[in-house]
Design brief:
The structure holds two protein chains of two kinds.
Chain A (H helix, E strand, L loop, with lengths): L3 E4 L2 E5 L4 E7 L6 E7 L6 E7 L4 E4 L2 E6 L4 E6 L8 E7 L7 E2 L3 E6 L1
Parallel strand pairs in A: 2-11
Antiparallel strand pairs in A: 1-3, 3-8, 4-5, 4-9, 6-7, 7-8, 9-10, 9-11
Chain B lengths: L4 E3 L2 E4 L5 E6 L6 E8 L3 E9 L2 E5 L6 E5 L5 E5 L8 E8 L4 E3 L3 E5 L1
Parallel strand pairs in B: 2-11
Antiparallel strand pairs in B: 1-3, 3-8, 4-5, 4-9, 5-6, 7-8, 9-10, 9-11
The chains are: A mainly beta, B mainly beta.
Chain lengths: 111, 110
């Protein structure tokens, strides 16, 4: 089955810095790559997603890049703010099927 | 539009008991997926229902089951609870692929 590796497991940055989280996957049939943010006591919230026919997608301070040849994709957060502190999960799926998640990255943004 | 709702939010059970969790998807969404989240294993897929039919199933024992009703609401049941079933159970609904999660039900098995 699909295997998703996510790095780093924890990431500490200063407010205003950029943060990058990387994921690799194993199944070349995967073509949908969402990112979720989970705050304490809440369910995962979709923050951005990308499909395999696109190499990059940006939404304000958040961007995702995809390299299908190398089977990896990354989340980029610029100008980080304390409210960005949370656990971030990457996920992959073939088509619109079952999501396989990475283990998560705990992002801490210090003021 | 209201989001995914899950009830109850918290639950305490003892080993050997059974439990039923409920999920109401976003209006118009016909697909409901269930995930188990634990610190050790992370987010793991349990099953997916679409139009009252189980469409996909994860690698969990038969003690875990689910169903979906004609109004797309879904329930999952865990029988003969074990300590290891303590987890956050998340429901996600989707219309055409993108999954939106509810707040989860926190189950503690004593």
């Amino acid at each position: 089955g699909e295997n998703v590796e996510q790095h780093p497991s924890t990431l500490s940055v200063q407010e205003g810095d950029s943060a990058v989280i990387k994921c690799t996957y194993s199944d070349s049939a995967s073509n949908y790559f969402p990112w979720y943010k989970q705050e304490l006591g809440k369910g995962p919230q979709l923050i951005i997603d990308i499909r395999s026919n696109v190499g990059e997608k940006k939404d304000q301070r958040i961007a995702v890049t995809l390299n299908k040849t190398a089977k990896h994709f990354s989340l980029h957060i610029t100008e980080t703010q304390p409210e960005d502190s949370a656990v971030y999960f990457c996920a992959v799926a073939p088509g619109y099927s079952t999501l396989t998640f990475g283990k998560g990255t705990m992002l801490l943004v210090s003021p | 539009k209201a989001g995914v709702t899950q009830t109850p939010r918290y639950l305490i059970k003892t080993r050997g008991q059974q439990v039923t969790l409920s999920c109401s998807p976003i209006s118009g969404h016909r697909s409901v997926s269930w995930y188990q989240q634990t610190p050790g294993q992370g987010l793991q897929f349990l099953f997916e229902y679409f139009s009252e039919t189980q469409r996909n199933k994860g690698n969990f024992p038969g003690r875990f089951s689910g169903r979906q009703f004609s109004n797309s609401r879904s329930e999952m049941n865990v029988s003969t609870l074990e300590l290891g079933d303590s987890a956050l159970y998340l429901c996600a609904s989707s219309l055409i692929g993108t999954q939106y999660f509810g707040p989860g039900t926190r189950l503690l098995v004593l």
